Q: What sequence folds into this?
C-alpha cells in the first residue's frame, strides 16, 4: 500500500538530468490536455504512437508528450506537429513520474477543463475517441477505459480521464506532489495505479470504466475479476464492446499468455490481426511495423527470441491407411511445401499407424491416446507455449481430443467425412452434438452427401459448412505399364481378361459381403471377366466367409483378394472398370485413383459421394443394390471397348481439374484463413539447440526420430552419428535427410560407444561453425546387459518430452545451471572418506588431473543423456581436439558392470558433467 | 555403367562445377594446405552432394613432419565420416601423390597411415598415384589406362576402341577404378559423353562379356556387403552373448539373494515369490533367445564361404585363370 504521508515533494527545479524540455510552444488557453507518457526503445517514436496522437488531437486534446527515452531530433521535429510540450526524462517511475513532471510544469493542471493521462502501451484508438469521451464525461468525474480488482479495485492507468472538479481538488494535487520518482515499475503499478483510484474514491468522486470488469467477467467463475482486464478480456472487449484499444504487451511480452496459467487461465492473444482488421478501420500495418522494429531491436540483445508464425495443430484419428488420413497427409505435404506455417500433428486413437512415418516427416507427432492424465497436463503446458492458432481435425470422431484442446481458445475446424452409418457407430459424436455446434468454427466436408447429412443429423448451421471435394496426389505414372504387366503375371490373369476392380476394407458398409454374389453374377456366364478386390483383411471374419462362398461358386481363381497396402496404385492400371459398391461412403479416394488411371466408376445410387463423383462424367450409377443392373452395365462396357477407350482419354483430365491436391489444398487453406490470418507473427523465445544423437542399434531409429522431431523448428540443429555397425544406416541416413531441417549425419567407426559418437559430433559441431545455447546429448540407449534397461531409458528420455521443454528452459534461467537430466540418474560414486571412486577410480583421477579439473562435487548423470549449456562444451573442446580424445577410447562392446569399471569410455561419461562442475555449474534433475 | 570410373578433379576449389552433375559419379578430390580455410564449405558441399568421393593428398602440399601429418589428419578425418566417402572392402581410401623419392614417400605413407588408424580405427588404404603422369597408375584399386584416356580426350574415333578393348584391356583392370583426369567443366562433360559412347560400343562388341562384368560386379558388391554385414552380425552376436552373460549373472545374483531369503520372503510378502517366478521366466526366455541366435548364426554364416567359393570360379573364368568349359566339368 502507498504511504501517502511521505512529506517529500517534487520540485520542478530538480537537477536538470531528471528532465529536459525539448520543445515548448506558448499557446493561449488550454482546455482539454492529454499528458502522454511514452518510452521509445530505439529512440524513435513508433508510427502507431503518431496515429494515437493524431486521434487525440482530433478528439480536441492538446498533448504534452513526455518520453523516458532519448529521442532523435527528427522525432522531436515530427512530434511538434502533435504536441505543445515535449519533455525527455530519465527512465524511472514510468508513466506516473512522467505525468508528475508535466503536471508540475503545468501548475498541476488547475487551468484545464480536463486532463487525460495516457500512454503508448496500447494500440489504437480503433474508434473515434470524441464520441466515447462525450458520453463518459457526463457520467463520471474520473473514468478509465477498463477497471480491475487486481491488487485492489482501480481504473487501469493507460487511459485515465479526470474532470475539472478533480483537477482543482486538494486530493489531486496532494497525490501528485507525493509521487516518488525513484520507484521502479512494479512499485509504481502497485502503489500509484491502484492508489490514485483509491484516494479519488475516498474523496467521493464518481469513478467508473468504459467497459467494467463486472460486466465482462459476469460469466466467469475462474477468478478473472482479479486479472488485468484489458489483457484477460482483450478479445471479448474488441469483439463485443467496440473497445478502442489493444494492449501492446499482449504481443511483445513473451510469457504474457501464461501470466495467469497457475490459476488455470490461458490468455490466447492469437488472431488479433484478423479481429482488429475485420472489426475496425485501424491500420494493423502499424502494429506489424512495431513488431518488426521491436524484433529487430531485441534480436541484438536476445539471440533466443524469434519472430514466427503461429503453429497449427492437425488431428488425425489414426495413421492407418485410409481416405481421411491420406487427405490430411496430402494437405500437410502441400502446406509444408507451399507455406512457412509451422504445424504439429496429433494422432488421437490407437491403430496400426502405417502412415505415421510420413506424418513424422512433416512435423512433430504426439500420440494423444497414450498420454496419461499427468502427461496430458504436461502436453497442455507445452501447447500453450507453442502458440497454436488453429486446430484442424480430419474427422468428427476426434471429439475427445477436440474437447481437450478447447482450452487453447482458438478456432477449431473439422474436415467431416462421416455419413449416418459411421456416425451411428460413434455415439460420442451425437452425444456431443451441442458442443460440436457451439465450438466448431467451421466444418469442411468432402461431398454434398456429407454436407446434407451433417446439417440433418447434427443440425449444424449450413453457413458453417463448406464443401471441398476430397483429393489425391497426381504422383503416379499410370502410363508406365511395366508394373501392371508384372502384376497381371503375379495374379495369373490372362492378357485378354476383362478386369473389374473393387476396393475397401472388409466390412458391411463397403458391401464386401456382396462380393461373392456380384462375382457370381459377373463371372458365371462370362469366362473372360476377372475380379480384384483391394483391401481385403484376412483377420476379418467376413474374409473367410467370402472365401467360402467363392470356393463353393468355383470362383476362387477368378476373384483375387488383395490385402490393404500402400502400393495399391498399379492395380488400377489393370482394371478395365471400377465398381464402388459401398452402401455408404463419403467420397472414396479410390474413385479418384481409378479416374487418374482413366477407368470409369459404377456405383449404387444414394450411396454417398460417389454419385456426385460420377456426375462429373466419370462413371454411372445403378439403382441401390440392383445387382442385375450392375452386371448389365459391366457387360455393356465389356462389349464396347471403344467406349472405355474414349473414357480413358477424358477421365484423367476431369479428375486432375477437380480432385487433386494442388487444386483442393488451397481451398482448405482459404477456409482456415477465414478463421485465422496466417500472416500474423509472434515473438517467441526459442533458444537454439544442437541435438547431438548417436545411433548404434538397428531397431531404435523410429523411436528416436519421434522423440526429437518436436525440436525441429527450423533453427535447431540435428547432428547424428550413426555407427558403422548399424545395419540400417543407409535407411536412417535417407530418413534423416527427408525428416529433419538443419540436419547432418556422419557414419562413425565403432569406437567408444556413444562417447565416441559424442566426440565425433562435437568435432562436427565445430566444423560446421554452429553456435547454440544448449546441446542435448542423446543416444539409443538399450542397456541390454541389465534387467532395468527399459526403465533407465524411460527415465533418461524424459528430457526429450515436449512437456518438459519449458521446465528445462526455466531451469537454465538460473545462470548456474549447466546440465539438466533425469533426476534418477544423478549419481556420485566418490567416497570422500577413502578418496576413491567406486568405478573408474584410476582413470577418473588421471583425467581430472590431466585436464586440471578441481571439484569437490563428483555428481554426474549416468546414461549420458542430458541437456548442457553449449558454452561448456565449446570452451573445453576448442582447446582439446575431440577426435584426438576419441583415439584413446576403447572399441567394441564396453560394458560398465561390476568388476569391469576402469574404462576411458565410462570415465569420459563422468567427465562431461565434471567439465560443467569445474566451471561452477550445477547439475539439475527433472 | 559397365566399368567403375572415378574422375580426378583439378583441385577442390571449384567443386560446384562438377558436383552439379545429375548422374552420381565418383571423384578424387585433391586437397592441399588450404583445406582448413574452407573446410566448412567443402564439408557442406560434399554432404549435400549425391556423388562419392575420396581425397588425394598432393605432392608438396603438406608438411611431412609428424606434427604436419597430425594437422593434416585432423583436417581429413571429419570428411571420412561423411556417408559418401569412398571405401574399398570396408577401408577408407586415401590417395597420396607419389613423389619420386621412394623412401621418403614410404615413410610419409606409413606415418600417415598410423596417424589415420589411431583416429578412425577402421583400416585405411593409402594408395599412391601420380596425377601428372596418370598413365603410370596401376595399383590394386586404381588404374589409369593410357589408351582409354586418349580415346576420351579425342573427339572422333581416331583411336579405335575396338583395338583397345580386345588388345589392351587386361582382365585385372576390369574390377579396378578407372581414373579419368579432368581439367575443366567442359572437359568433364565431354568425357562423360565419350564414356557413354565407349560403353555403348563395348556393349555392342561384347554383349556377353558386358553382362558377365556387370553380373560379376553386382555379385562382388553383394559379397562385400554381405560379408561386412556378417562381420557386424558376428560382432553383435558377441555383444549379445556378453550382454546375456551379464544379465544372467545379475539375475543369478538376484535369484541367489531371493533364495537365501526364501523363508523370510515366504513369510512376509508373496509379491517377492512372484518376482522370483518372473525372473526365472525372464532368464529362461533370454537363454532361449540366445540359443536361437546362436543356431541362426551357425546355419547362416557357415553357408557363406561355400556360396562365395562357387562364385569364385566364375571370377576366375573372367580373369582368364580358368576356362569357361571347366565350369561344366
A:
Amino acid at each position: 500500500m502507498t504511504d501517502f504521508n511521505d512529506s517529500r515533494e517534487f520540485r520542478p527545479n530538480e537537477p536538470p538530468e531528471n528532465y529536459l524540455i525539448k520543445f515548448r510552444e506558448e499557446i493561449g488557453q488550454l482546455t482539454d490536455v492529454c499528458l502522454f507518457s511514452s518510452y521509445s526503445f530505439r529512440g524513435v517514436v513508433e508510427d502507431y504512437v503518431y496515429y494515437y496522437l493524431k486521434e487525440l488531437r482530433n478528439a480536441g486534446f492538446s498533448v504534452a508528450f513526455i518520453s523516458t527515452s532519448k529521442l532523435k531530433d527528427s522525432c522531436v521535429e515530427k512530434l511538434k506537429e502533435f504536441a505543445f510540450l515535449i519533455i525527455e526524462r530519465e527512465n524511472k517511475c514510468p508513466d506516473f513520474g512522467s505525468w508528475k513532471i508535466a503536471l508540475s510544469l503545468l501548475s498541476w493542471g488547475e487551468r484545464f477543463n480536463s486532463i487525460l493521462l495516457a500512454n503508448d502501451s496500447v494500440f489504437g484508438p480503433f474508434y473515434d475517441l470524441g464520441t466515447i469521451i462525450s458520453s463518459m464525461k457526463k457520467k463520471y468525474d474520473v473514468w478509465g477505459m477498463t477497471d480491475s480488482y487486481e491488487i485492489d479495485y482501480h481504473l487501469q492507468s493507460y487511459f485515465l480521464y479526470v474532470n475539472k472538479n478533480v483537477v482543482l481538488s486538494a486530493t489531486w494535487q496532494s497525490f501528485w506532489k507525493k509521487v516518488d520518482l525513484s520507484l521502479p515499475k512494479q512499485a509504481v503499478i502497485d502503489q500509484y495505479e491502484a492508489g490514485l483510484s483509491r484516494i479519488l474514491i475516498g474523496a467521493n468522486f464518481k469513478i467508473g470504466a468504459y467497459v467494467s470488469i463486472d460486466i465482462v467477467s459476469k460469466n466467469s467463475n475462474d477468478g478473472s475479476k482479479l486479472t488485468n482486464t484489458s489483457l484477460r478480456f482483450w478479445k471479448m472487449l474488441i469483439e463485443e464492446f467496440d473497445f478502442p484499444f489493444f494492449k501492446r504487451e499482449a504481443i511483445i511480452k513473451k510469457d504474457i499468455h501464461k501470466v495467469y496459467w497457475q490459476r488455470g487461465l490461458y490468455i490466447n492473444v492469437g488472431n488479433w490481426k484478423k479481429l482488429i482488421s475485420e472489426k475496425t478501420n485501424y491500420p494493423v500495418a502499424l502494429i506489424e511495423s512495431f513488431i518488426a522494429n521491436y524484433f529487430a531491436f531485441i534480436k541484438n540483445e536476445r539471440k533466443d527470441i524469434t519472430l514466427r508464425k503461429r503453429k497449427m495443430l492437425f488431428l488425425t484419428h489414426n495413421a492407418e491407411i485410409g481416405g481421411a488420413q491420406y487427405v490430411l497427409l496430402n494437405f500437410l505435404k502441400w502446406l509444408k511445401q507451399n507455406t512457412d506455417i509451422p504445424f504439429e500433428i496429433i494422432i488421437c486413437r490407437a491403430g496400426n499407424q502405417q502412415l505415421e512415418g510420413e506424418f513424422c516427416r512433416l512435423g512433430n507427432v504426439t500420440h494423444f491416446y497414450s498420454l496419461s492424465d499427468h502427461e496430458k497436463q504436461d502436453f497442455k503446458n507445452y501447447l500453450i507455449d507453442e502458440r497454436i492458432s488453429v486446430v484442424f481435425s480430419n474427422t468428427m470422431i476426434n471429439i475427445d481430443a477436440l474437447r481437450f484442446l478447447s482450452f487453447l481458445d482458438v478456432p477449431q475446424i473439422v474436415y467431416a467425412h462421416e455419413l449416418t452409418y459411421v456416425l451411428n457407430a460413434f455415439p460420442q459424436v451425437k452425444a456431443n452434438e451441442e458442443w460440436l455446434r457451439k465450438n466448431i468454427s467451421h466444418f469442411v466436408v468432402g461431398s454434398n452427401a456429407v454436407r446434407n447429412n451433417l446439417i440433418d443429423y447434427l443440425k449444424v448451421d449450413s453457413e458453417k459448412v463448406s464443401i471441398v471435394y476430397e483429393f489425391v496426389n497426381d504422383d503416379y505414372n499410370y502410363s508406365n505399364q511395366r508394373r501392371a504387366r508384372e502384376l497381371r503375371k503375379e495374379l495369373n490373369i490372362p492378357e485378354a481378361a476383362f478386369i473389374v476392380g473393387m476396393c475397401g476394407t472388409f466390412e458391411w458398409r463397403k458391401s464386401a459381403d456382396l462380393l461373392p454374389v456380384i462375382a457370381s453374377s459377373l463371372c458365371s456366364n462370362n469366362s473372360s471377366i476377372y475380379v480384384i478386390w483391394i483391401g481385403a483383411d484376412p483377420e476379418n471374419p467376413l474374409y473367410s466367409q467370402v472365401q467360402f462362398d467363392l470356393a463353393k461358386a468355383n470362383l476362387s481363381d477368378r476373384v483375387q483378394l488383395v490385402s490393404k497396402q500402400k502400393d495399391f496404385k498399379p492395380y488400377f492400371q489393370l482394371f478395365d472398370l471400377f465398381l464402388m459398391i459401398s452402401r455408404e461412403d463419403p467420397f472414396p479416394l479410390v474413385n479418384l485413383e481409378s479416374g487418374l488411371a482413366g477407368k470409369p466408376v459404377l456405383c449404387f445410387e444414394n450411396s454417398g459421394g460417389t454419385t456426385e463423383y460420377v456426375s462429373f462424367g466419370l462413371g454411372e450409377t445403378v439403382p441401390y443394390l440392383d445387382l442385375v443392373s450392375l452386371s448389365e452395365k459391366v457387360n455393356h462396357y465389356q462389349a464396347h471397348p471403344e467406349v472405355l477407350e474414349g473414357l480413358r482419354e477424358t477421365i484423367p483430365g476431369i479428375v486432375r481439374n477437380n480432385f487433386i491436391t494442388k487444386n483442393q489444398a488451397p481451398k482448405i487453406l482459404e477456409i482456415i484463413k477465414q478463421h485465422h490470418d496466417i500472416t500474423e507473427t509472434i515473438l517467441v523465445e526459442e533458444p537454439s539447440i544442437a541435438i547431438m544423437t548417436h545411433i548404434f542399434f538397428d531397431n531404435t531409429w523410429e523411436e528416436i526420430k519421434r522423440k526429437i522431431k518436436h525440436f525441429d523448428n527450423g533453427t535447431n540443429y540435428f547432428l547424428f552419428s550413426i555407427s558403422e555397425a548399424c545395419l540400417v544406416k543407409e535407411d536412417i541416413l535417407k530418413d534423416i535427410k527427408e525428416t529433419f531441417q538443419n540436419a547432418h549425419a556422419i557414419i562413425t567407426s565403432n569406437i567408444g560407444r556413444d562417447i565416441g559418437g559424442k566426440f565425433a559430433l562435437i568435432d562436427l559441431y565445430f566444423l560446421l561453425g554452429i553456435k547454440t545455447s544448449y546441446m542435448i546429448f542423446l543416444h539409443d540407449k538399450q542397456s541390454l546387459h541389465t534387467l532395468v534397461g527399459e526403465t533407465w531409458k524411460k527415465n533418461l528420455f524424459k528430457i526429450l518430452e515436449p512437456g518438459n521443454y519449458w521446465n528445462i528452459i526455466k531451469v537454465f534461467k538460473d545462470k548456474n545451471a549447466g546440465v539438466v537430466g533425469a533426476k534418477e540418474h544423478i549419481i556420485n560414486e566418490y567416497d570422500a572418506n577413502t578418496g576413491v571412486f567406486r568405478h573408474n577410480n584410476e582413470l577418473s583421477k588421471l583425467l581430472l588431473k590431466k585436464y586440471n579439473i578441481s571439484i569437490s562435487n563428483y555428481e554426474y548423470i549416468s546414461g549420458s543423456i542430458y541437456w548442457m549449456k553449449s558454452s561448456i562444451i565449446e570452451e573445453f573442446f576448442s582447446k582439446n581436439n575431440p577426435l584426438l580424445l576419441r583415439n584413446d577410447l576403447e572399441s567394441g562392446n564396453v560394458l560398465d558392470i561390476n568388476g569391469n569399471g576402469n574404462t576411458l569410455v565410462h570415465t569420459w561419461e563422468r567427465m562431461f558433467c565434471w567439465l560443467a562442475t569445474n566451471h561452477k555449474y550445477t547439475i539439475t534433475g527433472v | 555403367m559397365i566399368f567403375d570410373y572415378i574422375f580426378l578433379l583439378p583441385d577442390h576449389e571449384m567443386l560446384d562445377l562438377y558436383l552439379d552433375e545429375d548422374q552420381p559419379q565418383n571423384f578424387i578430390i585433391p586437397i592441399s594446405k588450404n583445406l582448413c580455410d574452407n573446410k566448412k564449405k567443402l564439408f557442406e558441399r560434399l554432404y549435400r552432394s549425391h556423388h562419392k568421393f575420396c581425397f588425394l593428398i598432393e605432392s608438396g602440399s603438406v608438411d611431412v613432419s609428424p606434427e604436419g601429418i597430425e594437422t593434416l589428419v585432423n583436417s581429413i578425418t571429419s570428411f571420412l565420416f561423411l556417408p559418401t566417402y569412398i571405401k574399398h572392402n570396408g577401408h577408407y581410401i586415401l590417395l597420396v601423390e607419389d613423389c619420386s623419392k621412394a623412401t621418403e614417400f614410404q615413410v610419409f605413407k606409413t606415418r600417415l597411415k598410423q596417424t589415420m588408424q589411431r583416429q578412425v580405427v577402421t583400416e585405411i588404404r593409402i594408395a599412391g598415384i601420380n596425377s601428372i603422369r596418370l598413365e603410370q597408375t596401376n595399383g590394386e584399386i586404381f588404374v589409369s589406362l593410357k589408351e582409354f584416356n586418349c580415346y576420351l580426350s579425342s573427339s572422333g574415333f581416331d583411336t579405335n576402341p575396338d583395338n583397345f578393348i580386345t588388345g589392351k584391356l587386361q582382365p585385372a583392370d576390369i574390377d579396378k577404378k578407372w581414373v579419368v583426369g579432368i581439367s575443366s567443366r567442359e572437359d568433364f562433360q565431354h568425357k562423360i559423353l565419350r564414356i557413354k559412347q565407349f560403353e555403348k560400343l563395348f556393349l555392342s562388341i561384347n554383349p556377353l562379356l558386358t553382362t558377365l562384368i556387370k553380373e560379376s560386379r553386382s555379385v562382388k558388391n553383394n559379397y562385400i556387403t554381405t560379408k561386412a554385414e556378417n562381420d557386424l552380425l558376428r560382432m553383435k552376436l558377441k555383444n549379445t552373448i556378453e550382454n546375456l552373460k551379464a544379465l544372467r549373472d545379475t539375475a543369478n545374483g538376484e535369484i541367489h539373494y531371493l533364495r537365501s531369503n526364501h523363508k523370510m520372503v515366504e513369510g512376509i510378502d508373496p509379491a517377492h515369490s512372484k518376482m522370483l517366478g518372473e525372473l526365472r521366466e525372464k532368464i529362461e526366455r533370454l537363454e532361449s533367445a540366445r540359443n536361437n541366435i546362436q543356431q541362426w548364426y551357425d546355419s547362416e554364416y557357415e553357408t557363406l564361404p561355400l556360396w562365395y567359393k562357387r562364385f569364385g570360379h566364375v571370377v576366375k573364368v573372367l580373369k582368364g585363370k580358368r576356362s569357361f568349359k571347366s565350369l561344366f566339368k
